Amino acid sequence: MSQVYESLSLANHSREIDAVQKVGLALGGIGVLLLFVAWGGIGLSSPALMLSTSIGLMTVGTLVYAWRSYMTVPEGIKNNGVWFDSLSNKGVLGWLFAIIITGFYVLLYFYPSLLGQGSDGAANTGIVALFDPLSRLLNGKAASQWFVYGTLYTVAILLLGFKFILKYRHNKYQLWRTISVMFFQLAFAFLIPEFLESMNSDQPYFQKDIKNMWPLNFYFYQDWNVNGMLGGGSLGLFMLFWGLAMTFIVSPILTFYYGKRWYCSWVCGCGGLAETAGDPYRHLSDKSVKAWKLERWLIHSILLLVTVVTIAIIYAYLKGDPGHKIWMTPMIFVIIVVVLSALVAAILLKNKTEVITSLGNKAFTGLLVALGGIAVLSVVAILTSGYDVFFIPTHQLKHWYGFLVGSVFSGVIGVGFYPLLGSRVWCRFGCPMAALLGLQQKFFSRFRITTNGGQCISCGNCSTYCEMGIDVRHYAQRGQNIVRASCVGCGICAAVCPRGVLRLENGSVDMDKRTTDLKAIHIGEEGVKLM
Amino acid sequence: MHIVIIGNGISGITAARFLRKRSEHQITVISAETDHFFSRTALMYIYMGHMRYQDTKPYEDHFWEKNRITLKKAYVKSVDFNNKSLQLDNGTLAYDKLILAVGSSPNKFGWPGQDLKGVGGLYSYQDLERMEHYSKDLKHAVIVGGGLIGIEMAEMFHSRHIPVTFLVREASYWDAVLPPEESQMINRHILENGIDLRLSTELKEILPNENGEARAAVTNKGETVDCQFVGLTAGVHPNIGFLKDTALEVQKGIIVNEYLETNIKDVYAIGDCAQASKPAPGRRPIEAIWYTGRMMGETVAHNITNNKVAYKPETWFNSAKFFDIEYQVYGNMRATLIEGHETIYWEHPDGKKSIRVNYNKATGAIEGFNLMGVRYRHEVCKKWVETQTPIEEVLANLGLANFDPEFFEQYEEFVVEAYNKQTGKQLVLTQKRALNAVSKFLSKLVKTN
Ligand SMILES: Cc1cc2nc3c(=O)[nH]c(=O)nc-3n(C[C@H](O)[C@H](O)[C@H](O)COP(=O)(O)OP(=O)(O)OC[C@H]3O[C@@H](n4cnc5c(N)ncnc54)[C@H](O)[C@@H]3O)c2cc1C
Ligand code: SF4
Ligand code: SF4
């Protein structure tokens, strides 16, 4: 026995990352460095070679590092030292990393020319020029900063997704869901839209990612996108109908059966990045009740805001469409808005107690006031035949929403702050899509996380590693199922639980009773009535 | 009425919480260990860097004030049962009712050198601090005692790449509780992780260096293992030192009746420190585990608030994790098969998962389940055991018990196959893993009960 030990102990003894891992890190690092070199304008004489070398090195580096890190040790949970590592415990490295990604986002959104984006027809330079050949190959045009972003984003999900798969290779749920987000990112968000773009380059531009839907892409109803789709031939019409169907039919049905996870941790690109690149930071989410309160206010306000902005946009669009390219008139639209507001208000009133317990009194009143306001203002707008439903110029609403929510929140804070606030800041506090799916998940879905009787030892692993900051333990230790609007169904709580307490499941039989009973079996149910 | 609880572990805190739910009495919880309740079971995860101390606290700090539970950090030096008063290291405190939830401490069996520096168990937060302190520049650790805490300690050092020698007195790891197949599975897994497992080996003495620190451990086989830390994990005993020589009846633990009352009026004992005078059939007088502490805490709260209920722990269950292999048990499962029981055992070819189902040969009733690397549903297993369901009904519906995550392979058919092979029957698995079927099954049973 001692002999077995001797041979194994050598590998175990190394406290630091070993030589092979270092090689992996170095190769990947050089790959990243090449991007910076190109940014500085060096090596752009043969951008194709430069880019393939860079991405190739990143790929090989990640593969080597991940393989060496995970395949040389038995399968299982790999959280050793998470809170000791400066990169993942908000230490100096974490801050540094956060500053670098945040900086990248600021350039990307607000100063693309600094990245080399050519304006007014000028050729690209810098890092954007590096991507020109790939862009030409895929869609026939020169690259833009968004193409650079899309490519790097996809590469990150694919490579770090691979790492994630090795890390959780004992867990089939993690395996399939990661393959799924990798596939949707590569095919639906990246390749297919680029191909479609190149085949329809003579037509006006509209977004062609069929997994994307309102309200995540709040621009769906904006004039350029609607006009693009209307003028975009059969593909444009398909995208219009598909986009509507996604929001109003496909998503509600899937969410009913499986909870919001079908989107948030199986399909969505934001979720995809959070689950792969963001995985090392999931424990940084704030679990306090305070944070939960903030979350509910923020995310639902943003859902309300995006609704308001969208109503304004559609109304203004219809107003500006006297030629009646579409059958809907401003009048019909306002009627629909009023009816929908009334419907939502009715649902709220009907479930008053439940809504108040989960959202609070103030939120409940606020919602009713907001719905009334939307309805009244829409009617006022049509009666005074004004252009702007909410008396704020629609283009300004659009602009500020796009700036604050679309860019600053989802990009700069959402991804840039991964190493400081955790990987799902945007998904938890900002995303209106998550808010909408969450409401449905909470009130009208078969999904829940079941607790395994009395087996919980209150250790806290589940809560710690919940990227949505849900205090899973709170429920688990009292034997209660977990039904939370924000749960994205990543399944990590169930994976890290050392006592096999949690299971993500869907069931119709007791859908209405998902949360009501405490099924704690602390003491015999006959002897004592549990409360 | 002022209810004072000594001990802020799971049993004391559960008692406090349920007392608050059921009454408006004044509640004070005293502990010398930490300001707030934390999960002792998670100590290893702090050391391994999975969590920080604050992550192991099941309730946020504002919880206590909000629920009017007074927390007091103090050491109780003695109890004056006649005058209902506690002598603290920083004052005195009067009580109307007293709950002793004082937990336990690691055993020391009089080994020479057991009190040296760099020697200690793993039970309290202070023990963890000691381990952390000695981990700096630690070249080699020796762990004594092949139980649940020993293997946790081995995993802890292993996570920091500190080589470990693990001395286990028994011929196979935890073989007083695990049947041979499961026990051997864990032996293999311990070795796979590079731990120097030495079975049938006991500690003889610990040698000091010139600073009074552990320098080496000597085994009963005469081997000397150089080390700078010796972990003592050969079981625990109740913390009753400060209660000795009082009117309180104690043996190994504090003697309680089925209502968790001690021999002194208005004094109760729960959790690790309680010793049942008449344990339920098949149960031990002291069961030092998390779940029993929680159940006793709840029960005692009922008893104090005028709802007299006996402590009835019902079907045994427990769980643990040995490095990467999870373990769950439901029902009456022993290391050596109980007379008149029959066992069905299936093991995965990877040698890291197994399912064991025991039943009564004479009546055919299910007795219990032992799971390694597979998760089973507590409520389903409990209902089956408590309603003495026939083995064939259990096996045909075995999927109801499966609690593994979605997409995980289901192994129930192999268990049925093993049963068929053993008995020559042609039983077929009819129920796979399915939540709806579970909901129906559980609600049906509740009604027919
Ligand atoms: C590392 C480890 C892992 C474990 N893992 C598991 C597991 O996975 N599953 C499981 O079921 N069980 C597990 N256990 C056992 C379980 O944790 C204990 O059974 C349980 O915590 C006991 O709870 P308790 O409330 O009875 O006592 P304790 O939690 O020990 O609480 C007693 C408290 O009282 C204080 N105290 C004692 N005397 C005095 C005094 N005179 N004055 C003031 N304060 C005093 C102590 O300092 C202590 O804080 C584990 C134990 C350890 C140590
Ligand atoms: S509760 Fe569990 S499944 Fe839901 S988001 Fe948190 S970790 Fe993921
Ligand atoms: S559910 Fe599991 S991970 Fe969460 S506190 Fe309980 S035992 Fe720990």
What does this structure look like?
The complex is a heterodimer of chains A (531) and B (449). By secondary structure, chain A is mainly alpha-helical. In chain A, 62% of the residues lie in helices and 2% in strands. Chain A has helices at residues 2-13, 19-39, 47-70, 92-110, 112-115, 126-130, 132-139, 145-167, 172-199, 223-230, 233-258, 261-264, 269-276, 289-319, 330-350, 352-359, 361-383, 394-413, 418-421, 425-430, 432-443, 461-464, 472-476, 492-496, and strands spanning 447-451, 502-506. A two-stranded antiparallel ribbon of chain A has the order 1-2. In chain A, α14 packs antiparallel against α15 (330-350). The longest helix of chain A is centred in the middle third of the chain and has 31 residues, at 289-319. Residues 1-15 and 523-531 of chain A have low confidence and may be disordered. By secondary structure, chain B is an alpha/beta fold. In chain B, strands 3-2-1-7-19 form a 5-stranded parallel beta sheet. Chain B has 3 domains: 2-105 and 237-304, FAD/NAD(P)-binding domain, CATH 3.50.50.60; 119-234, 3-Layer(bba) Sandwich (FAD/NAD(P)-binding domain), CATH 3.50.50; 317-434, 2-Layer Sandwich (Enolase-like, domain 1), CATH 3.30.390.30. Chains A and B meet through α1, α9, α22, α24 and β2 of A and α1, α6, β12, α7 and β21 of B. Bound molecules: flavin-adenine dinucleotide and iron/sulfur cluster (2 copies). One iron/sulfur cluster (SF4) binds at residues 449, 466, 468, 470, 472, 482, 487-493 of chain A.
Known CATH architecture of the largest domain in chain B = 3-Layer(bba) Sandwich
Q: What's the total helix number of chain B?
A: 11
The oligomerization state is heterodimer
Tell me the helix content of chain B.
25-40%
CATH topology of the largest domain in chain B: FAD/NAD(P)-binding domain
Looking at CATH, the homologous superfamily of the largest domain in chain B is FAD/NAD(P)-binding domain
The chain-level structural class of chain A is mainly alpha
Described by strand count, sense and barrel closure, the largest sheet of chain A is: 2 strands, antiparallel
Using the CA coordinates, give the radius of gyration of chain B.
24 Å
Instruction: Please give the alpha-carbon distance between the first and last residues of chain A.
Output: 53 Å
Strands in their spatial order, largest beta sheet of chain B = 3-2-1-7-19
| Spatial extent as radius of gyration of chain A | 25 Å
- Secondary structure tally: strands of chain A: 2
Bound molecules: flavin-adenine dinucleotide, iron/sulfur cluster
Terminal residue distance of chain B: 38 Å
Helical stretch count of chain A?
Answer: 24
